[in-house]
Amino acid sequence: MSARLIDGKAIAASIRERLSVEVAAFRQSTNQIPKLAAILVGENPASQVYVRNKEQACVKAGLASDVHRLASSTTQEELLELIARLNADASVHGILVQLPLPSQIHETTVLDAVAPLKDVDCFHPENVGRMVQGRPRFLPCTPHGVQVLLKESGTKIDGAHVVVLGRSEIVGKPVAMMLVQKGESANATVTICHSRTKNLAEMTRSADILIAAIGQPEFVTAAMVKPGAVVIDVGINRVGDKLVGDVAFAVVSEIASAITPVPGGVGPMTIAMLLENTLTAAKLQLAVS
């Protein structure tokens, strides 16, 4: 068996095309331009690429984008002051703090400082709580991208056993919570596996849908995948001059029924969902203004 490729790049392009129409309509009806403010602290090369890609995607979709580039020596107090100014700026609808942050800055304190209505990454505890209760204001970008990929690829989620490999606050926990909810593109039975899970390969082989999000290059081998499973690879790791996922693509694609590539799978979806959240944030703030 050779797995069908789930083309995140093509699906994301379709979403961005739809969003550009919706953004144009919003701009015409409100005379406002949805704006995303991104904050980049330090010189992390991967973060610089991510922020540049997000900035370019905003422009193509008709959104405004400001990037605040701060030195790696920036203090926590200075960063919090910038976030407070952006919270108070009515022209800014979404705030994104690019992770990771330098060691002198407490990540949770900074993420908690972003106003919930402008928290387009869905990291604020208020927004996380709403998501857990099944009444989200925003959905976190990467997990939402995974959910949309499953839906658009025709994968049956209702009743499926989903195994999530990884328990991060950014991907593992939220994607598990989203897929276990009642509703469309959900209703799955979800197992979360992590570094302390016993009999890991046995657990992953039980999955109808396997989502790998642990940040270890090519960790998932063919022996860990049930024949016919759908495999979503969230990982992106640089090995030499190559980008690879958390899944050993060549061998797993011979076992799975469908699989996402790296790059070109989940990554483009994350940016598309960020644009959608920024437009949603602009609509929410207009409603309460």
Number of strand elements: 11
H/E series = EHEHEHEHHHEHEHEEEEHEH
Report the radius of gyration as a whole number of Å: 19 Å
Strand content: 15-25%
So what's the overall shape? globular
Query: What is the CA-CA span between the terminal residues?
Result: 55 Å
How are the SSEs placed, and which strands pair?
Blueprint (H helix, E strand, L loop, with lengths): L3 E2 L2 H23 L4 E7 L3 H17 L2 E7 L5 H13 L5 E4 L9 H7 L11 H8 L8 H12 L8 E5 L6 H9 L8 E5 L6 H5 L4 E4 L17 E4 L3 E3 L2 E3 L4 H4 L5 E2 L6 H23 L1
Parallel strand pairs: 1-11, 2-3, 2-4, 5-6, 5-7, 7-8, 8-11
Antiparallel strand pairs: 9-10
Description:
- By secondary structure, the chain is α/β, with parallel strands linked by helices.
- The protein is 42% helix and 16% strand.
- The model has no long low-confidence stretch (mean pLDDT 96).
- The protein has helices at 8-30, 45-61, 76-88, 107-113, 125-132, 141-152, 172-180, 200-204, 249-252, 266-288, and strands spanning 4-5, 35-41, 64-70, 94-97, 161-165, 189-193, 209-212, 230-233, 237-239, 242-244, 258-259.
- Helix 2 (45-61) crosses helix 10 (266-288).
- The longest helix has 23 residues, at 8-30.
- The chain has a six-stranded parallel sheet with strand order 1-11-8-7-5-6. A three-stranded parallel sheet has the order 3-2-4, with helices on both faces. Strands 9-10 form a two-stranded antiparallel sheet.
- The radius of gyration is 19 Å and the shape is globular.
